[in-house]
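Reminder: ligand-aware prediction takes two inputs, not one.
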Amino acid sequence: MMIYDYVIIGSGIIGASIARELSRYKVDILVLEKENDAANGQTIANSAIIHSGHDPKENTLKARLCVEGNKMYDDLEKELSIPILRTGGFVVARGKDEEILLEQLYQRAIHNKVLDLSILNFDEGKRLEPHLTKDATKILSLPSTKVTYPWEVALACLENAIQNGAHFQKNSEVTGITKTKEGFLLQINFMNSILTRHVINAAGVFADQIAYMIEKDVKYQITPRKGEYLVLDRKAKSLYHHVLYALPTSQGKGVLVVPQVHGNVLIGPTSTLLDDKNLVSNTTLGIQQIQTDVKRLVDYVPYDLNIRTFAGIRATSSFDDFYIHESHEVKGFYHVAGIDSPGLTAAPAIAKYLVQEIITEKLVAKENFNPIRIKKKPFYKMSDIEKRDAIQENKAYGNIICKCEKITEAEIVDAIHSHVGNDTLKGIKKRARAGSGLCQGGYCEGLVLKIIARETNQPLNKINYYNRNTPILMKDSKVKS
Ligand SMILES: Cc1cc2nc3c(=O)[nH]c(=O)nc-3n(C[C@H](O)[C@H](O)[C@H](O)COP(=O)(O)OP(=O)(O)OC[C@H]3O[C@@H](n4cnc5c(N)ncnc54)[C@H](O)[C@@H]3O)c2cc1C
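Here is what comes back for the chain with flavin-adenine dinucleotide:
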């Protein structure tokens, strides 16, 4: 049986970033994912902010790797063609008591080496952010705060790792781990086995469960903490310009206003501790909480532009920092655990830290590592001449399927068959953005369904919405092949 050098459990932003970092070296890498697509855990449902590093406690790994990661995104943007929106961030204080806390946060940000900070008064803040609450008195300005499309960053890292020789296996849940003489035997889906010399545990909220498969004394417990959001349509794009933060509390950074790279605006998240690690449903209470808390930041939110809600689950750890260590019980097993916020920001720095400072094995660099991942220009961003040429080359570019986002049949076919392709409706929505607009797929879902069925040679009623066994056509409908 083939033996891998490194198996990474989990294909979220952390597993994907580690796979890319390790693919710089002469090692055989396999990324295992239990779901039927990459990065469907915390990485798909978060605020998408590349934080400046103003908030993590001084002298923690969170502070160091957040500030480093923020800077590394400038290179990732060029190398991986990922979208970045440079908004800057405002932390809003209202009144004398909050101004004292704002000053403490400012000092913390300086200690964490966040650059270009300043404190603005109300008039300066209001000029730059017209809907800022009239109660604001002082604002901490964080120019290095930016926003990305987290899921695409993970996919881009994974694609680039695969280009550089790594392997990816979805629908592969690690259900057991045994230590062997040479390394580890991983049990997959309670049946198959995989051999590896080293294991990297990047399983997000499930990291403690993976750890218990191999250690008796696990140094952290993960408690799921839900964050709910509202999404505003692109028509709200010009209303808010910065990421708007209230002052952090013991519950985290609180409800934020976050302009998104595709023009939408996120309002959220809430913070609720849960027992169930899979409970990503929205609640009336959560939505009410968002509507109350956002008043700390802005005086106006156009709720009539709300096009959907969603929730994500944070991997809140009992260890008061990221837990990135080799197992104290079993050599060759690495924990990258408790990666809650700012994990998206820190991801590239976490991967580098693990590979360069924690992994003890001597790694030999590949001469031919290629850091570049090329992404085709979306049809809606092409010039008229580019559009004409694209249609001449492939007439499927002439067939607009998603009218809201102007996504063509050619782009949907590409999303199905790309390096890390997918055959679910949500998988196509994430890759090609079909169904992301105002109608949320009301008009195009049936058409996308038919294209997936045609391209993958499956009957319509076998096409899943999202996870395994979530077929969208339960009975006969007007969608016919
Ligand atoms: C509400 C919310 C808001 C956030 N906002 C921000 C933000 O604005 N900025 C920021 O920097 N960070 C933010 N974060 C944190 C950030 O999203 C996470 O730190 C990051 O996504 C963690 O990535 P991950 O790869 O560790 O976890 P995940 O994305 O959860 O990936 C873990 C993967 O492991 C897989 N897996 C689990 N068990 C197994 C198994 N047994 N076998 C195989 N695969 C398995 C899962 O299916 C999953 O795909 C936020 C998080 C949440 C939830």
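The longest strand covers residues 306-317. The chain has a mean pLDDT of 96. We will return to this case in the review session.
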